[in-house]
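Notes to self after the Tuesday call (sharing in case useful).
The group wants a holo model before anyone commits to mutagenesis around the pocket. I volunteered. Ligand is zinc ion. Logging inputs and output together so the record is complete.
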Amino acid sequence: MDFNDDLLKTLLHAKHIVVFTGAGMSAESGIATFRDAGTGLWEQYDPCVLASPQGYRADKALVWGWYEWRRMQVLRAEPNAGHLAVAELAKRVERLTLITQNVDDLHERSGNTDVVHLHGSLHSPRCFACARPYAFPDGIPNEPAGGRRLTPPHCQHCKGPIRPGVVWFGEMLSEAAWKQAEQAASQCDVFFSIGTSSLVWPAAQLPVTAAAKGATVIQINPGATALDSKAHFNLRGKAGEIMPALLDALPLAVS
Ligand code: BV8
Ligand code: ZN
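Result:
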């Protein structure tokens, strides 16, 4: 796979790279992207409604069953070549900030540390009423392929229903995570946007901020997205193919 010389030169001299990822980053690990996560029982529901406090209040068992089914997929999945290439890139550059919209832990499991989770994590459930953290029992949930309703467990302290530790639509992002992400986007000299449809705000603002501050924006996605017109390089293809090829094209010491 050939890459544009300017792109390689920019990477070679990069002092601070931001890698911003979405659900497409985990697609090659067999995890349905957010837009496709509504299969089986959830086919008839809009994921943006299921992923909201209103959706949870309306039918806790439907939503909790969806998240347990997704958590099962994540626990059964392995990081893919794209995750591993991002972890390798972090070793080669002076400074890399990894920001993800994903609620899985595949970046951590491929060796990245200090991952900024803008939308929370499947692995940190908490009480819907008193917000106390809830500890999952060991093991992998064994959810039927087509999915099922599953009544959520209850908080030991106040008996409130347990909810996923993710940021739902209509909920605020963690102040600290957002501040860290905005700062990195404003200071970096290269901003990768990998596997995101760039439709969810305020996360979708990050590459726009980076470009406005003079960073080179590189997008990796097999399809067209809302970011196409603002990215300096649009690499059409899968993260698990393009990222390893890009690392191969770079000499070992990037900067
Ligand atoms: C908020 C956790 C303040 C849950 C998620 C303007 C400003 C601020 C807010 C808004 C705004 N306009 C609208 C809003 C409201 C809303 C919003 O953005 N709505 C959208 C739908 C228009 N935003 C919010 O509510 C946010 N909160 O702003 O707080 C506030 C408070 C109150 C009232 C107003 C404002 C909170 C948003 C967080 C939602 N939570 N996740 C869960 O996961 O269940 S977002 C969810 O979508 C996932 O995190 C997912 O990662 C994310 C984004 O989707 P993508 O990652 O892009 O995934 P998608 O499936 O869309 O696309 C996959 C892509 O991968 C595709 O492009 C595909 O081509 C590509 N791909 C496929 N295979 C591969 C690949 N790429 C590479 N390689 C491959 N192999
Ligand atoms: Zn509680």
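Two things stood out.
Residues 127, 129-130, 132, 155, 157-158, 160 surround zinc ion (ligand 2) (CB under 6 Å).
The longest helix spans residues 60-76.
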